[in-house]
Each structure stands twice: as structure tokens, then as C-alpha cells.
Amino acid sequence: MNIEDVRLYALSLGEVEECLPFGDETLVFKVKGKIFLLVSMDADPLQFNVKCDPERALELREQYDCVQPGYHMNKKHWNTIIADGTLSTRMLKEMIEHSFSLVAPKRK
């Protein structure tokens, strides 16, 4: 996946807004004002940060070398994914969807 693929996929999830609050280097994707995806536009290979529940975050880091600890924002766990070709597109999409599900309003 390239930056545009990630961007279009994130926007397709519904109620997602995109912004560039950190200058021109990072795309930020939010749902109802809550960040769920950061994409580093100047990284090669592509890198993005996703929210992840703590148990799943550790599991993914152990399973994939390209998944590394991210930073912690408001004590929520994040993973940094380096899209170096070792993860399938399906798995990358699943990680974005998981992150989205952690912040998206629950539908009744």
C-alpha cells in the first residue's frame, strides 16, 4: 500500500476527517475528533501509527518485525507499522480498521 491507498482506505471507513496539524510531514485521521491513524508522509518505506489494545499490540509486535512500539498518547497504546512489504495489504487494512474501531462511536 502506498500513501494514497492508505489515505483512501481510511477515508472510506466513514465519518473520518483528514488534517495536517503537524506541518506537511504527517497526515492525521480522526473520527469525531479522536485520532486513530497517523501517516508519515516523508518516511521511506511508508510508516504509520495506529491505536491498538495492549494485548493485541504486544501480539503483533511479536509476530511481525515491521510492527514496533509506537508512542503513548493519553495512555492509549499505539503501534508503528513500517510498510516494508512483509505485511499483506489485508493485514494493514485490519490494523487500520482495529484502530478505527477503538475510537469510532459505537452504533446503536
Brief summary:
The protein is 31% helix and 28% strand. The protein starts with a helix and ends in a 5-residue tail after the last helix. It has 108 residues and is α+β, with helices and mostly antiparallel strands.
List key phrases describing it.
108 residues; alpha+beta; Aspartate Aminotransferase, domain 1; 6-stranded antiparallel sheet; 3 helices; globular
Overview of the structural elements:
The structure is a single chain. The protein has three helices and six strands. 31% of the residues lie in helices and 28% in strands. The chain has one domain: Aspartate Aminotransferase, domain 1 (Alpha-Beta Complex), CATH 3.90.1150. Strands 1-2-3-4-6-5 form a six-stranded antiparallel beta sheet, covered by helices on one side. The longest helix has 15 residues. By secondary structure, it is α+β, with helices and mostly antiparallel strands.
Taken as a percent bin, the fraction of beta residues is: 25-35%
Straight-line N-to-C gap? 33 Å
Mean pLDDT over the residues: 85
Number of domains: 1
Question: Mind telling me the CATH class?
Answer: Alpha Beta
Count of helices? 3
List the helices and strands and how they pair.
Layout lengths: L2 H9 L4 E4 L6 E6 L2 E7 L6 E5 L2 H10 L3 E3 L8 E5 L6 H15 L5
Antiparallel strand pairs: 1-2, 2-3, 3-4, 4-6, 5-6
